[in-house]
Each structure stands twice: as structure tokens, then as C-alpha cells.
Amino acid sequence: MLTVHKANKLKGKCVVPGDKSISHRAVMLSGISKGTTKIGGFLKGEDCLATLRCFQQMGVKVREEKNQLFITGKGLHGLEEPEDVLDAGNSGTTMRLMAGILSGQDFYSVITGDASLRKRPMKRIAFPLRKMGAGIDGRKMGTQAPLTIRGGGLKGIEYQLPVASAQIKSAVLLAGLFADGVTSVIEPRVSRDHTERMLQSFGVTVRQDGLKCTVKSEELQATHIEVPGDISSAAFILVAAACIKGSDVTLENIGINPTRAGIIDALCQMGAEIGIKNKREIGGEPIADVRVKGSDLKAVEIGEEQIPSLIDEIPVLAIAAVCAKGTTRITGAAELRVKETDRISAMEEELKKIGVEITALEDGMMIDGPQIITGGSTDSHGDHRIAMAMAVAGLLSEEPITIDNHHCMAVSFPGFIETIENLREG
Ligand SMILES: O=C(O)C1=C[C@@H](OP(=O)(O)O)[C@@H](O)[C@H](O)C1
Ligand SMILES: C=C(OP(=O)(O)O)C(=O)O
């Protein structure tokens, strides 16, 4: 159990660990490329370590030197049939993106995950991958993990995504690297585009035409990847500092890819004082230093269009809404119900325990602010984002907040508590 006490101010500079989405993709793409890829800033969080172990089980060699990973790929057709079940742990990204790659392999594989992941919907990737020719089965009529995959013999398809999901888009595009003909995905709204950007760094031609993205089979060539700081991890610090008057924090080297930076836009709409400095691009991804100062916040309306760019940040955005004047309304976010936990219900349950009123909607939530956070005992539901959102609430709370099952923070942000404590002034 973790106890978090109120903070007077947060001050200083910090870095956050590498981007989780980019770290997963760096392992996967280097694993199926030719040559050795050097990866700096790789996130050693539980999710990305699960991806790394899965690729090692398929014969991919990984070496670490001076905090950099060197991954020697097996080419498009060199992965080895894993002798045992692949374990994606808590990570939806690992399971769904890897299913795309496994669908292209001329072998049989089984992929499972923890109790949370085994409940998450997999039909969304199994359906298009079967259309391409993969033999995929699983529990609950082939819709839940463990999944079995007999890959090979794929043909390209054009697929209209039913939801704006980078995981479904990426699974189909990655399978497309092994398919005969061209493979296209059409998204209903823009979702994070790290796969498309990184494929190009590995020398693959990616055609983007509005919301339609097309690839065809092409060998990947090893490259050098620098993983930026994860904006989804930075979000916890951004919200905490924005809510505490007198705070002034600079987060260095944060990825500000526009398909991911919705939390910055949302906080600016709420009147937060945020400055973006030292903008640059590394390996096709925009990064910058982000400075945030504490100020009075006002409520915001977040709808369907903005959701994909801040989907993982909604639990902590809810904490900002508690401090903001007026009614914050978040809608179009039904996807929150199928994350590591049902994040709408989990936030409703946990906020009530610390004296905060919230109205849960089928596809979002409404919060009237400002409200006083009284403090109390909470539980993470085994979900890293809920655990860290509750820790941010603790920094703002009259009385301390305890968080049960807080170790899941290491899924995406190892060292979260130390990072916060280093910024605490009083
Ligand atoms: O592609 C990715 O790396 C991710 C995509 C998002 O999921 P969906 O594709 O299900 O929206 C996000 O919530 C997840 O944390 C990471
Ligand atoms: C939803 C998340 O990740 P994943 O889908 O990879 O489990 C997340 O990190 O918030």
C-alpha cells in the first residue's frame, strides 16, 4: 500500500521514462528487420519487457550496453516458432500488435496474458487478421485470449476500422508486411501514428491518404531509434503541477506527436499555463521540453474527436476536472470500458471514496468543480493509470490518500513516486 500526502508545490526539472507505444514498436520492428537496431531511451516497464521476452522466445537476440538496446532482427521470415506460450502480461499493445506479426509467420503460436488482458476484446484484431488468411482461435468463440495463431499465406485487404484504435490499425498494417498485394486500413478518426512513422524509419513505404493508410510487403532495414519521454506518463506530472498554485515544472524530452498530445491541448483549454520549448524531431517523432505552472483551471468539454489523442490520460484529466471551475464533460470515450480495467467505473468508485462527486456516463463522465478532495483509502484495480491518477489526487488532497495494489505503476512508469518526490517542495 502507498500513502501520498498533500504537496505545497512541485518545482524543478524532470524527465519521464521512454514512450511505451514507441518502445513496443521499436522491439517488434527491429525483431523482423535485417541487421542490428540500436534503441536509446527504451522503456523498461513491465509491458515493454513482456514484448521483449516474446521476441527473444522467437530467436531474436537482444544485447544491452550503456543503457542502450541492440536488437538483431531475423528478417521478415526468420522468426522461430516459440516452444512455449508467449505471455503478453498486462499489455494489450503486445498482444494485438504481435498478433499481426504472428499472423504472417509460417508457424503456430499461442499468446496469453494476465487476468485483465484475458478479459479484453480480441475479436477486433482476430476478425481482420482472419480475413487476411490467418487461422486464429481463442476462448469465448475466438474473441478472448489465450489466442492460438496459425500464420502464413496472407493476402492484403482493405479494412475499415470499426473504432479509432491504433492497436487494430497497427495489427493489420504489420500483417500487411507479410501479405500478397496491398493492405489498407481506413480509420474513423486519427489515432496515434507511431507504427506508420517507425515503419518509414525502417525503410518501408507507407502511403497516407487522409484517413487511409496503405503498405505492402517489403523488407525492413535496421536503424537507430531514440525513444522520447512518454507524454502519457508526463500527463500525471503536468496535471499535478497545473493544479497546485506556485508550481513550476519543466519536463524534458517529451514526445509531442500531435496524435498523442491531446492532454496538452485539453489543459491549455482549461487555462493551464503551459509552454513548449526546444521543439525538435528525432527519428520521425516530434519532441520538446514542456513547462507547466500552477494556475486556476476552468472546466472543459472533451468530445469524440479529441478522445484518441488523450485516451490513456482521461483518468488523470478527471483529477484536473475536480480542481477546475465549472462542469467538465467527457464523452465519446466508451473505449475506456475495455482498457486494463473499466476505467469509467474504476474512477467513479475510487473518486467517491475520497469525497469527490462524479457522474459516470456510458461513454465518459461529468465532474463539477472545484471540489475538495478529502482523502481516504483507494484501490488501483490493478490498473497503472488508475493507481497514478489516485497518487496525483493525493498530492491535492486535504488528508492523505492510500492506494492499494500500487505496484502496477511499473507497467508504464517505473520510478513514478521517486520522480514526484524529487519535485515536491514542502
Ligand atoms: O497502439 C498503442 O500503442 C496504444 C493504443 C491505444 O489503445 P487502442 O488502440 O485500443 O485505442 C492506447 O490506449 C494504448 O495504451 C496504446
Ligand atoms: C491501455 C493501455 O495499454 P495497453 O492497451 O497496451 O494495455 C494503457 O497503457 O493505458
TrEMBL record:
<feature type="binding site">
    <location>
        <position position="385"/>
    </location>
    <ligand>
        <name>phosphoenolpyruvate</name>
    </ligand>
</feature>
<feature type="binding site">
    <location>
        <position position="25"/>
    </location>
    <ligand>
        <name>3-phosphoshikimate</name>
    </ligand>
</feature>
<keyword id="KW-0963">Cytoplasm</keyword>
<feature type="binding site">
    <location>
        <position position="165"/>
    </location>
    <ligand>
        <name>3-phosphoshikimate</name>
    </ligand>
</feature>
<protein>
    <recommendedName>
        <fullName>3-phosphoshikimate 1-carboxyvinyltransferase</fullName>
        <ecNumber>2.5.1.19</ecNumber>
    </recommendedName>
</protein>
<keyword id="KW-0057">Aromatic amino acid biosynthesis</keyword>
<feature type="binding site">
    <location>
        <position position="21"/>
    </location>
    <ligand>
        <name>3-phosphoshikimate</name>
    </ligand>
</feature>
<dbReference type="GO" id="GO:0005737">
    <property type="term" value="C:cytoplasm"/>
</dbReference>
<dbReference type="InterPro" id="IPR023193">
    <property type="entry name" value="EPSP_synthase_CS"/>
</dbReference>
<feature type="binding site">
    <location>
        <position position="167"/>
    </location>
    <ligand>
        <name>phosphoenolpyruvate</name>
    </ligand>
</feature>
<dbReference type="Pfam" id="PF00275">
    <property type="entry name" value="EPSP_synthase"/>
</dbReference>
<dbReference type="GO" id="GO:0009073">
    <property type="term" value="P:aromatic amino acid family biosynthetic process"/>
</dbReference>
<dbReference type="GO" id="GO:0008652">
    <property type="term" value="P:amino acid biosynthetic process"/>
</dbReference>
<feature type="active site" description="Proton acceptor">
    <location>
        <position position="312"/>
    </location>
</feature>
<feature type="domain" description="Enolpyruvate transferase">
    <location>
        <begin position="5"/>
        <end position="419"/>
    </location>
</feature>
<dbReference type="InterPro" id="IPR013792">
    <property type="entry name" value="RNA3'P_cycl/enolpyr_Trfase_a/b"/>
</dbReference>
<comment type="similarity">
    <text>Belongs to the EPSP synthase family.</text>
</comment>
<comment type="subunit">
    <text>Monomer.</text>
</comment>
<feature type="binding site">
    <location>
        <position position="120"/>
    </location>
    <ligand>
        <name>phosphoenolpyruvate</name>
    </ligand>
</feature>
<feature type="binding site">
    <location>
        <position position="167"/>
    </location>
    <ligand>
        <name>3-phosphoshikimate</name>
    </ligand>
</feature>
<feature type="binding site">
    <location>
        <position position="20"/>
    </location>
    <ligand>
        <name>3-phosphoshikimate</name>
    </ligand>
</feature>
<comment type="pathway">
    <text>Metabolic intermediate biosynthesis; chorismate biosynthesis; chorismate from D-erythrose 4-phosphate and phosphoenolpyruvate: step 6/7.</text>
</comment>
<feature type="binding site">
    <location>
        <position position="92"/>
    </location>
    <ligand>
        <name>phosphoenolpyruvate</name>
    </ligand>
</feature>
<feature type="binding site">
    <location>
        <position position="339"/>
    </location>
    <ligand>
        <name>3-phosphoshikimate</name>
    </ligand>
</feature>
<dbReference type="InterPro" id="IPR001986">
    <property type="entry name" value="Enolpyruvate_Tfrase_dom"/>
</dbReference>
<dbReference type="InterPro" id="IPR006264">
    <property type="entry name" value="EPSP_synthase"/>
</dbReference>
<dbReference type="InterPro" id="IPR036968">
    <property type="entry name" value="Enolpyruvate_Tfrase_sf"/>
</dbReference>
<keyword id="KW-0808">Transferase</keyword>
<dbReference type="GO" id="GO:0003866">
    <property type="term" value="F:3-phosphoshikimate 1-carboxyvinyltransferase activity"/>
</dbReference>
<dbReference type="GO" id="GO:0009423">
    <property type="term" value="P:chorismate biosynthetic process"/>
</dbReference>
<comment type="function">
    <text>Catalyzes the transfer of the enolpyruvyl moiety of phosphoenolpyruvate (PEP) to the 5-hydroxyl of shikimate-3-phosphate (S3P) to produce enolpyruvyl shikimate-3-phosphate and inorganic phosphate.</text>
</comment>
<feature type="binding site">
    <location>
        <position position="20"/>
    </location>
    <ligand>
        <name>phosphoenolpyruvate</name>
    </ligand>
</feature>
<feature type="binding site">
    <location>
        <position position="312"/>
    </location>
    <ligand>
        <name>3-phosphoshikimate</name>
    </ligand>
</feature>
<keyword id="KW-0028">Amino-acid biosynthesis</keyword>
<feature type="binding site">
    <location>
        <position position="343"/>
    </location>
    <ligand>
        <name>phosphoenolpyruvate</name>
    </ligand>
</feature>
